[in-house]
Amino acid sequence: MPALLILQHVKAIGIFLLLSSVLCGTARAQGRIVAQITNIRNDKGVCRVCLFDKADAFKGKEGTPLQCREVGIRNGRAEAVFTDLPQGNYAVFAFHDANNNNKFDTNFLGIPKEGYGASRNHLPFAAAPGFEDNKVFLPAGHEVRLAMRFRNL
Fold it and tell me: pTM of the entire structure?
């Protein structure tokens, strides 16, 4: 009888360890995206960087960014880090808020007055950047580094 009891305890411990490893593995499966931005006109103001997981939010039609960062600029460069992200498709949009007014300034024709960029540097000249052209896939538990180069008009 004691051997059967020991076997049941070993079995229970094995199941516990298996479930623990699965649950801990899921917790560690979160990834991160690092946006490294260059070609910022000057070091005035801040760089505003937003992460999106939906096309409508990226275009400003419906919804809000998943996360946003306000980062300093040094020697025409900035870096924003987005953490605790599940596997999926993401796009980043950033702009140089030189006058620190918390807005992406444009002229009366809608042409940007401040530098801007998107995750895959797909920046059409006569249209706003799109989610599909700039999305990147983040695998579970990985880090994706984006080399974003600003367009200054």
Answer: 0.80
